[in-house]
Every structure is written in structure tokens, then in C-alpha cells.
Amino acid sequence: MNDRMPPASPSEEADQTQLMFAREEGNAYLKSLRHMVSDVADNGNMQHCGDVLIGFAQEKAEGLYRLRDEQLVWEEPAEDENCHFEVTVIDAADHRFIPCLDVTLTVIDADGNEIGSETMPFLWHPGLYHYGRNWALPGDGKYDLRIDVAAPDFPRHDQVNGRRYAKPVQAYFRGVEIRTGRS
Questions:
Q1: Three state DSSP letters for the chain
Q2: Which sequence spans correspond to the domains of the chain?
Q3: In CATH, which of 3.40.1670.10, 2.60.40.2480, 1.10.8.100, 3.30.230.10 is domain 16-178?
Q4: Residue 161: predicted pLDDT
Q5: What is this structure's pTM?
């Protein structure tokens, strides 16, 4: 996989030092992402898609804190949830995580039947920002994963470097071996 785009160019908005810091930040994130995909998750992969790299990691369903009535409350996975998917979208040039995206994951079984399609909300994680949620899958097996990322509507600085992420992108991971369960 070629995960390098040409680096951003110095401009009226970003000097060489700022761009160096952005690359350092992104490379630290990429190192953490590779650790998650290779060493922590049950399965995972990354794919170059236009201006971004899209990655996924799959684990057993897990509990999360949620804010309810101004209090953080721990919630275990719903009874039928047996899988947790994480999705990352990073800038292909500097590898920084891209926030505020509309990310949708579609899971397709080995017979080509769509199991479900869900928006993947942002999840704060102490080691790796990502989009994700728990899922209820029929069981272990091979699934295809389609990840759709809408073109974001957030404003962009920089007349030279700011014309990125202008089109929706899609990643497709075929024959992903999924092991369901609960953490």
C-alpha cells in the first residue's frame, strides 16, 4: 500500500515548521493505528482512497461511557451486540486523523446479503481517535466491509493546501474474517 501523497507545500497559511509538526503528529497517529490494526484488534486493514487513508479494526463488542443527564454512565453492549468496529480516516499526506466526518459502515455477508449499514460516530479512545460502534452480526465468518465517507463541509484554511477532501470516498475490504463475542 502506498500511503504517501506529496507533502503539503509551504504557503501564506502554513510555514515549513508547521508542516513538519503536522507530519510528526500524523506519523505518531499512524504508528498507533498500525499497532491497533496489527497487535490489538482481532482483524484490521488500511486502504488508500484519494486524499485519505481509511482503516478499520474489528474486536469483540465492548462497553462505553456515555453522557446521560450530565453524568458519565458506563453502558455494557446491548444483549445482541457481538462485534465492535472501529474506522479511521486520516490525511494521506501527513497522516493526521480527520475529525467531524460522516462515516458509514456497511457489512455484507459471504452470500452478498447486506447485514446492515450504520453511521459510525466519533469515539474518544485514550490511544486512538476513531469512528465506531458495536454491531449485532449473525456470527463468526467472512464479511465484506464497505466504508463510505462523505465529503466534509467544514471550512479549510490555505489557498495552496486547502482543496482536499472535496469528494466522497469509499473503501471496500473483501473477505474479512470476523470473530464475534463480547469483551
A1: CCCCCCCCCCCCCCCHHHHHHHHHHHHHHHHHHHHHHHHHCCEEEEEEECCEEEEEEEECECCEEEEECCEEEEECCCCCCCEEEEEEEEECCCCCECCCCCEEEEEEECCCCEEEEEECCEECCCCCCEEEEEECCCCCEEEEEEEEECCCCCCCCCCCCCCCCCCCEEEEEEEEEECCCEC
A2: 16-178
A3: 2.60.40.2480
A4: 77
A5: 0.92
